[in-house]
Amino acid sequence: MAVSKTWLGVVVAMGIGLTALSAQAQTATPFAAPVKGSRTIYRNAALIDGTGTPLRRGMSIVVDGERIVEVVGDRDISGESLRGAAIVDVKGQYVLPGLIDSHVHVATPPDRVQAEAVLRRNLYGGVTAVRDMADDLRSVAEITRASLVGEIAAPDLYYAALMAGPSFFDDPRTAAAAMGVTPGKVPWMQAVDSRTDLPMAVAMARGTYASAIKAYANMPGPMVKAIVAEAHRQKIAVWAHGAIFPGSPAEVVAAAPDVISHVCYFAYQLSDAVPASYQQRVPVAHDRFGPDGSPVTAALFRDMAKRGIILDATGRVYLEYEARAAQNGKPPLCTADLAARLVRQARREGVEISTGTDGTAPAAHPWPELHDELVFLVERAGMTPAEVIRSATLVGARAAGQAADMGTVEPGKLANLVILSRNPLDNIRNIDSIEMTLKRGHVYPRADFTPLTPAEMREDKP
Question: pLDDT tens digits, residue range 17-26?
Answer without folding.
Answer: 445 445 544 5
